[in-house]
C-alpha cells in the first residue's frame, strides 16, 4: 500500500508482523476470538471496552499526551502536540520523552497517521475530550466553536465589535475570526492589556479548571467585560465557560499544569548492610512458618463452622487471633495465606466447618525453606486480598475471612510490580512506602477505584471565583493524589505482607526476595506457574542457609519449665507439645509442665516411666525433682477412677474416694448415685463425666466395655483432598509467542482472502461469496493442482457459517479437495459440495 493511510485498518496493514504481535501482546482482549482480518482487528481495537482497558494501562505521561491530543485539532501535527505538552517556552524533558509517548500510543493503536496528521481514535477522543458532564483532567473547556454553537448571529457580531474585530457576514466566519484572535499571542495579549484587573483575576481563577462558573442575571462590570468580548461564553441560563483557545493563551500554550515526563524518583533511599537485611528477613520467614504451623495445630481437630454465606464469623476470627497472639487483621492474613496455599479448606460435611487439608500433612513434613517457598508462591499469584476483610461489599455486608468476594484481580500485578521496584534498588536499600506508591500511581494513574487526577464537575450555580477556588491539579497547593484507591491499598498491603513473610527485611528486598522477581520481564506480563515455581525454588535455596538449624534437646528448669534454645526437631516438638504447654515464644520457646498437661500425656498412652525416660533423653540438664514428683503424683492418681458407658459410671477400688465425690456439691450436675461400694452411676455421657471430674481436680481415666483403659489420642480432622483457590484473572491472559505467531498468520491470511484481487467470476455482488457450478468448481480446482496456483473460494461449514478463504489445492479426489489454507495456515480437506464457488486470483495477489 502506498500513500497516507486513510483509516486505522489501512495503517495496521502496513505494520510488520512484529508490530501486529506487539499490539496483540499489549491488548490481549483483541485476541478473543482471533480477528478474521485486519479490518476486524481495527474495528475491535476501536470498541469502547477495549479502548478503556488500553487507556487504563497507560503511564501518566502517555496518558497526558493522549489527553492533549483529545483537546487538539483533529488531525494534529506533531509540532502542535509538542507545543501543547511543552508550552511556548518549551520543556527539554517533555520534548525528549514525547516521541516515546507517541510511539506507545501508536503501538497500542490508540493513535494513527503520520507525524503531520496524528489522529486519536474516535472512541479515545470521546473518552478524554472535555465536556460539562465529564471534565478533562487538563481543566480545559470547549472550543470557541463548540461553546458558541446556538448563539445568535447578532450576539456574535456584538462580540466581534467589542473585541475590535471587523464584522462578518455569517456565524461561521465570526467564530473563525474570534478563534483566530484568541489563538494569536500578540493580539490576545493586547486585548488583555485593556482588561480590568478584576476581570484578569477571574480568568486566573478559571485558568486551570474547572472552566465553568455561574453568573447572576446582572453580571458585575468586570464579568460583563469578559462576556462582551467572548472571553467568557454563556453555557446555560446562569453558567459561563472559559473557551479553550483563551485558556491556552493564558497558560502559555500548555494543556497540563504540570507535565510529568519522567516517573517520580524512589527516594529518599536508606542503605543498610545486605547481610543484616537477609538475616532479618530470614528471621521473619521462620516466624511466618511457625505461625502457619500453629494455626494448623489449632485446627487439628477441626476449625470453626462455615457461615451460610461463606467464610468464618467475626467471633471465630477473634478466637483465632487470640490463639495466634495477633490482631484480627493479621489473623485474616495468615488464614488467607494458608487457604491460598491449599493448607486449609472447608470439609464439605453437613455441619460444614474449616479444617486442615491432606496437603497440610505433606507441607508439615517438608524442610523449612521448601515450606516457605510454597507459601510465597501462593501469595504472589493469589487474587484473594485479606486486607479487605471487615470492609463492606456493594450491598453493605461485611466481608468475612475465608469468604467469597475477597478476590481483587489487580493484586498479583501490583505485588510483582511493587517488589520489582524494590529489586531495582541496590541490595540492602529501602525507600519509604510513599515513594513506591507515587511511582505506582505514575505508572497506572487510572487503575485505581477512580481515575486519579480527574477534575470534578462543577456544582450548579457556582460563581467563577468559587469554581476556581481549588488549586489546579498538580500545583504546589493541590492536595496529594489519593492514597485510598484500590491500587494504592494493594501496594501498601503488599509491602506489609512482604515484611511478614520475610520477603523483605527492614523495608529492603532480601536476596531470596530478589530471586522471586524477574526484573527483565514486562511489568504487565504475568509469569506462568512454572516460572513462579522455579523462582520460588531459587529463592528457597538462598533462604535455607539463613534459617536456624533445629535442635534435639531442651533445658529443664526447677520451676517446672523447659527452654528450647532453638527450633526443635518436629518429633520432639510434637511430643513435648503433648506433655507441656507453650508459655512464650521467641528466640527460645518456653514450655510449662502442669498437672493437666501431664495428664494429657498419660491419656495419650504414655506411662510415668516413659515420660521420665523421654525427658532424660532430650534434656541437657537433669530432670528437676519437682517435675519428677509432678509426673509421679499425677500418674499415681491417673486411672484410679474408671469411666464407662452405663449411660456412664464411675468405678473405683477406694470406696472412701467415691463417698468424697458424692458428698462434693460440685458433683450435683453429674447426678451421681451409688450402685455398689465401688461403683457410681451418672445420668450424663462419659465425656461429660470425664470433664466434670477433671474440673473438680480428679484424674479419671476412661475404660472400654472389657474394663481396659482407653488411650485418648486426639483424632485429627482433615478435609477431603482440596486444591488451592484459583486466582481470578485481571482480564484476558497475556498470549504466549506461539499464540501470537498463529494469530498474526491468521489475520494476514484472512486479510489476503478479503482484499486479494480476483479475476472476474460472474460479477458477484460486493462482499458476497463466489458462485460457480459444480463442474466449473471441479475443473478450476484440478487446473490449480496442475499449475500450483492459489484460488479464492466461498465455503459453508457444517453449521451453516459462510466464509471466504484463499487456498492452494494439492489434490482433488473422491469429492474432496486437499489444500493449503492460507487463512488458517494449515493443510485442510474440504468437501466439494460445501464450496459455493471458486475464482482465480490475479497474478500478483499472492
Automatic annotation (TrEMBL):
Family matches, as InterPro entries: WYL_dom, XPB/Ssl2_N
Residue ranges of domain WYL in the record: 776-838
Annotated region (Disordered), positions in chain: 449-483
Keyword Cell wall biogenesis/degradation part of the UniProt annotation: no
Ranges where the Helicase XPB/Ssl2 N-terminal domain occurs: 554-676
PROSITE patterns: WYL (PS52050)
Pfam annotation, one family: WYL
Gene Ontology MF terms: helicase activity
Alphabetized UniProt keyword annotations: ATP-binding, Helicase, Hydrolase, Nucleotide-binding
Biased composition (Low complexity): 450-483
Top-level taxon of origin: Bacteria
Protein's UniProt name: Helicase C-terminal domain-containing protein
Amino acid at each position: 500500500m502506498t500513500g497516507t493511510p486513510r483509516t486505522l485498518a489501512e495503517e495496521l496493514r502496513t505494520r510488520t508482523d512484529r508490530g501486529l504481535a506487539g499490539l496483540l501482546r499489549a491488548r490481549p482482549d483483541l485476541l478473543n476470538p482471533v480477528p478474521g482480518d485486519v479490518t476486524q482487528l481495527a474495528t475491535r481495537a476501536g470498541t469502547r471496552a477495549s479502548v478503556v482497558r488500553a487507556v487504563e494501562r497507560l503511564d501518566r505521561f502517555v496518558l497526558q499526551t493522549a489527553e492533549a491530543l483529545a483537546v487538539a485539532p483533529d488531525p494534529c501535527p506533531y509540532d502542535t502536540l509538542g507545543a501543547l505538552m511543552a508550552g511556548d517556552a518549551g520543556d527539554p524533558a517533555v520534548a525528549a520523552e514525547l516521541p516515546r509517548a507517541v510511539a506507545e500510543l501508536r503501538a497500542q493503536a490508540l493513535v494513527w497517521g503520520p507525524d503531520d496528521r496524528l489522529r486519536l481514535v474516535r472512541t479515545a477522543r470521546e473518552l478524554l475530550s472535555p465536556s460539562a458532564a465529564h471534565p478533562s483532567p487538563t481543566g480545559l473547556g470547549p472550543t470557541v466553536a463548540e461553546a458558541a454553537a446556538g448563539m445568535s448571529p447578532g450576539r456574535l457580531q456584538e462580540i466581534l465589535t467589542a473585541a475590535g474585530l471587523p464584522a462578518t457576514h455569517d456565524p461561521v466566519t465570526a467564530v473563525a475570526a474570534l478563534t483566530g484572535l484568541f489563538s494569536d499571542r500578540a493580539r490576545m495579549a493586547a486585548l488583555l492589556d485593556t482588561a480590568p484587573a478584576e476581570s484578569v483575576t477571574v480568568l486566573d481563577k478559571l485558568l486551570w479548571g474547572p472552566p465553568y462558573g455561574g453568573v447572576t442575571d446582572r453580571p458585575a462590570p468586570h464579568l460583563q467585560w469578559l462576556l462582551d468580548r467572548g472571553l467568557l461564553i454563556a453555557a446555560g441560563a446562569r453558567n459561563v465557560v472559559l473557551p479553550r483557545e483563551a485558556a491556552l493563551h493564558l497558560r502559555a500554550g500548555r494543556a497540563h499544569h504540570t507535565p510529568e515526563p519522567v516517573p517520580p524518583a524512589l527516594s529518599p533511599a536508606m542503605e543498610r548492610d545486605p547481610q543484616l537485611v537477609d538475616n532479618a528477613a530470614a528471621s521473619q520467614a521462620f516466624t511466618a512458618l511457625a505461625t502457619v504451623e500453629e494455626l494448623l495445630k489449632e485446627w487439628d481437630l477441626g476449625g470453626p463452622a462455615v457461615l451460610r454465606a461463606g467464610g468464618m464469623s467475626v467471633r471465630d476470627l477473634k478466637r483465632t487471633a487470640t490463639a495466634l497472639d495477633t490482631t484480627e487483621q493479621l489473623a485474616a492474613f495468615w488464614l488467607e495465606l494458608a487457604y491460598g496455599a491449599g493448607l486449609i479448606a472447608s470439609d464439605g460435611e453437613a455441619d460444614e466447618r474449616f479444617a486442615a487439608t491432606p496437603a497440610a500433612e505433606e507441607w508439615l513434613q517438608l524442610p523449612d525453606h521448601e515450606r516457605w517457598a510454597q507459601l510465597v508462591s501462593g501469595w504472589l499469584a493469589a487474587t484473594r486480598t485479606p486486607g479487605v476483610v471487615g470492609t463492606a461489599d456493594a450491598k453493605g455486608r461485611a466481608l468475612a475471612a475465608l469468604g467469597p468476594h475477597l478476590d481483587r484481580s489487580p493484586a498479583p500485578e501490583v505485588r510483582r510490580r511493587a517488589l520489582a521496584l524494590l529489586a531495582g534498588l541496590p541490595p540492602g536499600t529501602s525507600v519509604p512506602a510513599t515513594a513506591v506508591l507515587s511511582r505506582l500511581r505514575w505508572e497506572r494513574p487510572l487503575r485505581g477505584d477512580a481515575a486519579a487526577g480527574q477534575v470534578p464537575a462543577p456544582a450548579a450555580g457556582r460563581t467563577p471565583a468559587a469554581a476556581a477556588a481549588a488549586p489546579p491539579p498538580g500545583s504546589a497547593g493541590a492536595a496529594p493524589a489519593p492514597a485510598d484507591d484500590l491500587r494504592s491499598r494493594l501496594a501498601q498491603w503488599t509491602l506489609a505482607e512482604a515484611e511478614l513473610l520475610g520477603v523483605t527485611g527492614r523495608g529492603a528486598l532480601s536476596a531470596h526476595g530478589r530471586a522471586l522477581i524477574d526484573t527483565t520481564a514486562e511489568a504487565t506480563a504475568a509469569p506462568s506457574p512454572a516460572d513462579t515455581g522455579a523462582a520460588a525454588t531459587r529463592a528457597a535455596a538462598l533462604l535455607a542457609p539463613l534459617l536456624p538449624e533445629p535442635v534435639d534437646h531442651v533445658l529443664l528448669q526447677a520451676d517446672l519449665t523447659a527452654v528450647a534454645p532453638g527450633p526443635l526437631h518436629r518429633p520432639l516438638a510434637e511430643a513435648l507439645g503433648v506433655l507441656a504447654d507453650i508459655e512464650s515464644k521467641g528466640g527460645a520457646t518456653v514450655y510449662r509442665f502442669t498437672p493437666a498437661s501431664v495428664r494429657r500425656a498419660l491419656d495419650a498412652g504414655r506411662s510415668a516411666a516413659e515420660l521420665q525416660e523421654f525427658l532424660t533423653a532430650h534434656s541437657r540438664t537433669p530432670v528437676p525433682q519437682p517435675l519428677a514428683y509432678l509426673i509421679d503424683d499425677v500418674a499415681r492418681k491417673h486411672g484410679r477412677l474408671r469411666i464407662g458407658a452405663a449411660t456412664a459410671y464411675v468405678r473405683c477400688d477406694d470406696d472412701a474416694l467415691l463417698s468424697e465425690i458424692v458428698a462434693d456439691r460440685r458433683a450435683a450436675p453429674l447426678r451421681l448415685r451409688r450402685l455398689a461400694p465401688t461403683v457410681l452411676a451418672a445420668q450424663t455421657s462419659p465425656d461429660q463425666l470425664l470433664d466434670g471430674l477433671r474440673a473438680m481436680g480428679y484424674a479419671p481415666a476412661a475404660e472400654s466395655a472389657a474394663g481396659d483403659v482407653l488411650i485418648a489420642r486426639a483424632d485429627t480432622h482433615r478435609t477431603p483432598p482440596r486444591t488451592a483457590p484459583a486466582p481470578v484473572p485481571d482480564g484476558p491472559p497475556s498470549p504466549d509467542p506461539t499464540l501470537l505467531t498463529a494469530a498474526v498468520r491468521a489475520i494476514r491470511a484472512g486479510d489476503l482472502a478479503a482484499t486479494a484481487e480476483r479475476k472476474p467470476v460472474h460479477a458477484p455482488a460486493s462482499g458476497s461469496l463466489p458462485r460457480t457450478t459444480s463442474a466449473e468448481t471441479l475443473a478450476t480446482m484440478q487446473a490449480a493442482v496442475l499449475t500450483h496456483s492459489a484460488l479464492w473460494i466461498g465455503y459453508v461449514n457444517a453449521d451453516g457459517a459462510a466464509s471466504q478463504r484463499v487456498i492452494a489445492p494439492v489434490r482433488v479426489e473422491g469429492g474432496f479437495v486437499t489444500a493449503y489454507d492460507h487463512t488458517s495456515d494449515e493443510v485442510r480437506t474440504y468437501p466439494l459440495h460445501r464450496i459455493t464457488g471458486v475464482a482465480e486470483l490475479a497474478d500478483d495477489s499472492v
